[in-house]
Amino acid sequence: MQRYIIILICLLGSSVIFYLLSKILKRLKIKNANYFGLLTSVIFFIITIMFSFLYFEPHNNITLKYTPPKIIDGKIEKGKFN
User: By C-alpha distance, which of 19, 24, 17 is closest to 43?
Assistant: First the structure.
């Protein structure tokens, strides 16, 4: 569920940036205002989703060692995690 909230926040943030930037650039009478707004919002979306997933994903340091199953005297000894 956390991933969907992160994606939703990134989409909303990039939409707001696109809207505000395109309005500001149109008011300044700069050509290609929609292109610059779209490019900036896509870059913002990619950067924020990358950093948020790196920040919020669990970073478990797994220090378990696995001993695979062995055959001893014709019987299988189970593998185990130490």
Answer: 17
Given a cut of 80, whether residue 81 has pLDDT beyond it is no
Its pTM surpasses 0.70: no
In DSSP terms, which residues pair with 66 in a beta bridge?
81
pLDDT at residue 60, as a whole number: 65
Tokens 């019987």 label which residue?
A: 75
CA distances from 25 to 19, 34, 69 (A): 10, 8, 66
Side chain identity at residue 42, one-letter code: V
Domain count, the chain: 1
As a whole number of angstroms, the distance between CA 43 and CA 74 comes to 61
pLDDT at 59: 67
Q: Token digits for 44?
A: 């913002």
- Helices and strands, number each (H, E), in the chain: 2, 4
Task: State the residue range of the domain holding 38.
Answer: 2-78
